[in-house]
Amino acid sequence: MRLSVLAFAAGVLVLQMQPELPGTGAMGFLLIAAAACFVLASTRSAWPARVLILLSCAVLGFSWAGWRAAERLSDHLPSDWEVRDIQVVGVVAGLPQRFERGERFAFDVESVLTPEARVPRRIFLSWYHAWDDVGDVGAEENERAAVRALRPGERWRFTVRLKRPHGGANPNGFDYEAWLLERGIRATGTIRTRGETARLEDFVWHPGYVVERVRDGLRERFQAELPGAPYAGVLTALAMGDQRSIPAEQWQVFNRTGVTHLVSISGLHVTMVAALCAAMVSFLWRRSERLMLYLPAQKAAVVAGWLAALGFALLAGFEVPAQRTLYMLSVVALALWSSRNLGASRTLLLALLVVLVLDPWAVLATGFWLSFGAVAVLFFVGTSRVGDSVNERRWLSGARQWGATQWAVTIGSVPLLLFFFQQFSMVSPLANAVAIPVVSFIITPLALAFAVIPWPPLLHLDHWLLAQLMTLLESLAGWPVWEQAAPPLWASLLAMLGVSWLLLPRGFPARWLGLCLMAPALFIQPARPLPGTAWVDVLDVGQGLAVLVRTAGHSLLYDTGPLYGPESNAGQRVVVPFLRAFGIRRLDALVVSHRDKDHSGGLAAVQGQVPIDRVLSSLSDLAGEPCVAGQEWTWDGIHFEILHPDGHDYSGKAVKSNNLSCVLRIGNGRASALLTADIEVVDERALIARAGGALRSDVLVVPHHGGRGSSSLEFIATVMPGDAIFSVGYRNSFGHPRSDILERYASSRLWRTDYDGPIRVELESKAIVSAWRQVNPRYWHGR
Hints:
- The chain is an alpha+beta fold.
- The chain folds into five domains: about 1-75; about 80-205, CATH 2.40.50.140; about 215-260 and about 445-485, no CATH class; about 265-385, no CATH class; about 535-775, Ribonuclease Z/Hydroxyacylglutathione hydrolase-like (Metallo-beta-lactamase, Chain A), CATH 3.60.15.
- The protein contains 27 helices and 26 strands.
- Strands 17-16-15-12-11-10-25-26 form an eight-stranded mixed β-sheet. The chain has a seven-stranded mixed β-sheet with strand order 18-19-20-21-22-23-24.
- A hairpin with a 2-residue loop joins strand 18 (about 630-635) and strand 19.
- The longest helix has 28 residues, at about 395-420.
């Protein structure tokens, strides 16, 4: 049974790694054939039959996941209806996420009013309006803003513009498209403020909408009771899973102390609530002889615990992590109800089977691996240890067990944390030893008690306790964090084996060998270019630019990507994680081409998290050197030269930010790349006059993202690029790159970050260009 479930899981995982889905007919045949082979082999006991059972289970997992994926992808937005006005009627399906001047929400489409338009059943919409102007304008505008306020369960008519699911595809980065696919969201878009917008009904009855309306009311209650309180967002997240109101600074504290799992409704919280409710019901149930005769206390506690887990998961919005935990607890509850001892491993694997049958995309989520990994570690160390004393005092035994559990979970999570996040908190055991019991048994129950009994002192006491805990966590956040380049798969698997060896029962000989097996994942250094060669990575940051240049021993970052919002930018979301994943802990140079936010939006995040030896820019208020034509240096056989702006350009009174863009040329005498930021035609002419034939480059990062006013025919003829790279956002509002600009580069190979993902340029004996989405395709990309 155990191996069969693992084989099914392996089949599901293999399907999710496919670049294309098999045909529907092929998947149907595989499903039927695998089921028939499984039934036939189950009647025999010889080893060939067992092997056939495992193969059948793997094929069943593969074909089941493929059939589910094909079904979900069939509900799609046709490409010819992207970014066109479509009028739809539907229901606000989820808790709206408020942001500056707007909100985002899931929307269930009931009907499409635009003739011939086709829209997926569930979409994700953004509505931009003047939220922050409310109170500073007249009564009429306040009334209009109030009318726009959304609540779950309302039926609306909107005019929308939609796009297919799309997100950044950087190595070791968050796959937004996979996240949308798992949640059944098949298009994203915005509401047209000039289109017809009307609320048609205040509430549409549906169990899911009822739950979301309750959650909305609870959020309002928390916000009204704690206006302006620093940790109100954390309490809201603990009670109902809404994490959007937690500031970025607090997330950083949680990340550095390794307690992020405690501020979201994770498996631990759902389990704790279920356990507390089960213990309470068991205690009270045993006090009644009549109830005991009607139903054993253990079974009553099982039912109560499962119902508590279900209610808490619903209150959390039934997000995927809570769903997985509920499925796991359901398996445990059924085993206890039937009075069957399935054993720890069977229970865990049955839960795994349920999760993958209901949600085959779970294997794409980091939380899936972390949650099942943590539970597996707990089961592994939960058995009695060789050499444990049976005569120890109860409190001492409990303390030892708690310490052993903390050690096991901490060391057991290291391989996965390095693989997914390339870091882990050195202070995590201490922080979790304090935070887990306080948050799980005091702070979260008090928040839930306020949700049920709206008595303000409960919430104020809870906030005070949380503030004391945050003071401790903030002091611990200054401790070091272990950062390591993303280990290869073989090193991660070896580290998992090392963890298993290290956590063997006390008394087992040579447990220290487990540390040796973990060493490659902890210390392995990523590959670097050979001397005389360079790697140039144009990152997928959306509508903006960020380029990392690596030589044998040096690293340079050219621009930091766009500013996405008040608390979100490409620096923290793309650039810094990319640097960490490839083991770059220090930048030898940072070039900020000019002031525009699509090029400098991530500057503060990069400066705050990565040491930088030298800064060149055209920003007068940025510490460092101004970039001036003629600056040049050589690293490891690679020549770098600033070609623009000229020193006199800074004295121009009416000069635009674009005209001061720092232009950088990189070459080794055999291959070269030219980075041009947002220069315009006048700057291109100045470059030609100043550099002439020296502009010739094999690879060109196209000026101004392919927008109007750049890429003159004269400039293209001078550079003569064999490859032209456009760093643009998918279906961006500027229309970049323009069709006429694309035609001008007809003699070059064209690359686009919106279609191809990050672009890698290897400057060797020639320029070798490759795209991440082409090298690592997945069946949901572009779908």
